[in-house]
Design a protein that fits this description.
By secondary structure, this protein is mostly helical. Helices cover 72% and strands 0% of the residues. The protein has three helices and no strands.
């Protein structure tokens, strides 16, 4: 196995796993606890970034670029999700003057 120069190999893989797990758990707590739609979207993005960090770390440690290519596609999907999600939030705010998800029960039939 060839040696990769740089910082990514000097930090043990366990640190990346623990940091990514912590970010993912913070994102899960943000989705489950918060009631503001913008905070929920930010928490989902935090979870996606935790997965991206882990994929990049594993990809660098295995000297395989396929994980980094997969990260590129995840970022593209996340950008599309944010644009559609923010458009929905803006329309909900224009109608209800709030982005609280508790108020969205009025949208039921």
């Amino acid at each position: 196995m060839e040696e990769i120069p740089g910082v990514i190999r000097t930090i043990p893989l366990n640190h990346y796993i623990f940091f990514s797990t912590a970010l993912f758990v913070i994102g899960i707590v943000g989705v489950l606890v918060r009631r503001n739609a913008l905070i929920i979207f930010m928490s989902v993005e935090l979870m996606l970034n935790a997965v991206n960090l882990l994929l990049t770390a594993f990809s660098a440690y295995r000297s395989d670029a396929s994980g980094q290519v997969f990260v590129f596609f995840i970022m593209a999907v996340a950008a599309a999700e944010v644009s559609v999600g923010l458009a929905i939030i803006v329309m909900i705010y224009r109608n209800n003057r709030s982005v609280d998800i508790g108020i969205l029960n009025r949208l039921k039939w």
